[in-house]
Each structure stands twice: as C-alpha cells, then as structure tokens.
Write a structure and sequence with these properties.
The protein is α/β, with parallel strands linked by helices. It is built from nine helices and 13 strands. The strands form two sheets. The protein has a nine-stranded mixed beta sheet with strand order 5-4-1-8-9-10-11-12-13, sandwiched between helices. A four-stranded mixed beta sheet has the order 3-2-6-7. Helix 3 runs parallel beside helix 4 and helix 7 runs antiparallel to helix 8. The longest helix is centred in the last third of the chain and has 15 residues. The protein is globular, with a radius of gyration of 18 Å. It starts with a strand and ends in an 8-residue tail after the last helix. The structure holds alpha-D-ribofuranose.
C-alpha cells in the first residue's frame, strides 16, 4: 500500500482554558493547563497513522526535552522518524494556545520547524518516498522548502496534498505541483481572493484554484461540513459535519487532513475520505489536546460513519 510522507511542523503545545479571551494588556486567570504534543505536520502524521496508513515524517526538532518527547510520541504510534532532524542550533517549535468556549487562539514559535532547507527536504524524499506515495505538507515550515518539497514530490510521481495553514501567498506556478488542496474559508480567501460563504462561493474559489493548476479542492466549512471538487467542471461532493459536544477544537482540522491522506493511500474516493475525516475529527473535538485527542481507525469505525455525497 502507498505510504503517506509528511513534511511538516512538530510543536509542543502549551494550552490553557480561559472563561473568555483576554483583552490587550489584560491578565486573566486560566485553568486546565496542558502540555501536549502538537504541530500541524505531526498531528496529521498521528491521524494518518492511527487511521491505518504507513507514515514517514520529514521534520526538525531541537536537541531538547520537548524534541525528545515529540519524536517519542510519533514513534509510539508507528510513524517512521528516521528523517526527523535533531538540531542543537535552535529549540523545538512551541505553540501557546488559549482555549475559550470551544474555540482557540494560537501563537507559534517556529524554532526548528524553519531549519530544513529545500535540499534537505528533497534529499529526505529521495531516501524514503516511492512513486505512488502521498506527500502532505502545510504552512508551518520554511516556505521555500515547502514549495521545493511539493515540486520534487510531484516530479517523483507522488500524489501531493497541500494544507495551506497558516495561509501565506504562493507563486501562481507552484499550484501545478498540487494534486489536492484542503483549506478553510479564511485560508481560501488568502490563497485565491475568494471567501466562500456558500456553495456558489465554494465553486468560484475551487474554479479559481483549478485555473491556477491544482487538480482537486476541498473546502472545510466548520459546522457546515466540507465540500470537494475532484476535477474542474465536476459536480461537487459534500461531507456533513457531525453534531458533537465541543471540548477542544485543536487538531480537528489536522485529523480531517490526515484522513484525506490516509484515505487516498488506501484507495478511497475523495468523498469517502472526506466523510471518514468528518467522523474522525468529530471525535477529536470531543477530547482535550492535540495528538492525545486523535482517534484510531477502530474508534472511528465504532461511530458507524457512512459515506455521503
Ligand atoms: O492545528 C493545531 C496545531 O496548530 C497545534 O497543535 C499547534 O501546534 C499549531 O501548530
């Protein structure tokens, strides 16, 4: 079976709940503080691996306690970390997360996440990836290295998935290296200038991205579920969001994207992997934390999820 190769961030999340978000200059008392392995790349790796994919991680952490814990957590769920660099030049990435009423605000210290160069990523890809594998990347690592990874993976015959989170402008020609882009409304507006508020807006945004060269587009709409456009001109497919009690939304999007990657590697159709991702992320929001909240394939199966379009 195809593997999922992820070039992405690894952060230690320092996360605290507040009764409301603090104002500028204000100090608030929080509660339920947790230190928890996170980072969009590593969260997506945990999700894909727990959902049954064979996963290889390309990343960098500092030679420090947080870095050791992050690598150990990935290895414990079966992710191949032979291409995770440990560097004494800089510290491990950290995310400060303030949670309130099921929502969150995140401030990042990139640290070692910006350490790998284009050459490092290309070298790692040649060492662990095969044509037909899935390559998944996001927006928390060095921008040039991320684009180089997409380009190299695409040239090597991998199926490339981009999750532009956080979103940052990208040269038009880079879209041709993207087989599937998965983004939310705000990321969509930044990446293509169209904020999709309804199905027509989603169609316009997807058409714009497809004109730029990307093949398939999935737009996530929070409680409204997600909408997918497999190829330019195709009828859109939809996955509904399950109604659940929200404990913490951290890593819900990462769980969904991990499912898209694992689903593609397992031969699922786009709409099947979208529905699987919805079921998985509904379980993630019901638990506190990032990686510790991501479900296994068996837990998702137990929900009785079904594919819909
Ligand atoms: O998507 C959630 C993740 O974003 C957190 O785990 C945090 O590390 C930030 O990267």
């Amino acid at each position: 079976m195809a593997r999922v190769i992820i070039f992405g961030s690894m952060n230690m999340d320092l996360s605290i709940e507040c009764d409301r978000m603090p104002q500028a200059g204000e100090t608030l008392s929080g509660h339920d503080f947790i230190t928890n392995p996170g980072g969009k790349g590593a969260n997506q790796a945990v999700a894909a691996s727990r959902l049954g994919a064979s996963v290889g991680m390309i990343a960098a952490v500092g030679a420090d306690g947080f870095g050791n814990e992050l690598v150990a957590t990935l290895e414990a769920v079966g992710v191949d970390c032979t291409k995770v660099t440990r560097s004494s030049e800089t510290s491990t990435g950290v995310a400060i997360i303030v949670r309130s009423a099921g929502d969150n605000r995140i401030v990042l210290s990139a640290g070692a996440n910006h350490l790998l160069s284009s050459e490092d990523v290309m070298r790692a890809l040649h060492a662990i990836a095969e044509p037909g594998d899935v390559f998944l990347t996001q927006g928390e690592c060095d921008a040039e290295a991320t684009l180089a990874g997409l380009h190299e993976a695409h040239s090597m015959g991998l199926y490339t998935i981009l999750n532009p989170a956080p979103a940052r402008p990208m040269p038009d020609e880079a879209w041709a290296d993207v087989d599937l882009v998965c983004l939310n409304e705000t990321e969509c507006e930044l990446m293509c200038g169209i904020c999709p508020t309804d199905e027509e807006g989603c169609l316009k945004a997807a058409s714009r991205l497809q004109e730029l060269g990307v093949r398939s587009v999935v737009i996530t709409l929070g409680s409204e579920g997600s909408i997918g456009f497999e190829a330019a001109g195709d009828k859109p497919v939809r996955a509904i969001a399950r109604k659940v009690e929200v404990v913490d939304t951290t890593a819900a999007g990462d769980t969904y994207i991990g499912a898209l990657a694992a689903g593609h590697a397992a031969g699922m159709s786009l709409v099947e992997s979208m529905a699987w991702g919805s079921a998985a992320s509904a379980l993630t929001v019901g638990k506190l934390g990032a990686q510790q909240a991501i479900p296994t394939a068996a837990e998702v199966e137990a929900t009785g999820w079904k594919c819909c379009s």
